[in-house]
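Pasting as-is:
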Amino acid sequence: MAENMMENLAGNIPHAGPMRWIHAAFAQKDDSIFAQQYIPADHPFLIHGHLPRSTIIEYIAQTAAAGGTALAVENPTGQAVSGMLIALRDVRFYSSAGAGDTLSLRVAVTHRMGNMFRCRGQAHCGATLICEGWFSFCIHSGK
């Protein structure tokens, strides 16, 4: 699944401390971003050992943020970029994830218009697809 792991892009994620849930993300040969993240038993959002669906969306959004500068932004100035999730479409959940699981996340940019982009995101737990859908983001240069 992770066929072209080179430079770790997780430093592009604007979150810090306990809200940065993705610690390693890599551009792939097909221009998607791939990340894997273990869910520890002390994850702050676990409820009865399972993650709420909204946290899976956040994992996918952070994976997209990691690849934002690599995939979606023509940024000749080298300025930092940040952005926000602005829309979800056809997001479906098929299963759940919890403490001790490892999420595999993949995000691929499919459309771009100026500083907005749409991507296809998926989250797997092992071989099981747990979430997929369309995610739209707006990005900007600077802080």
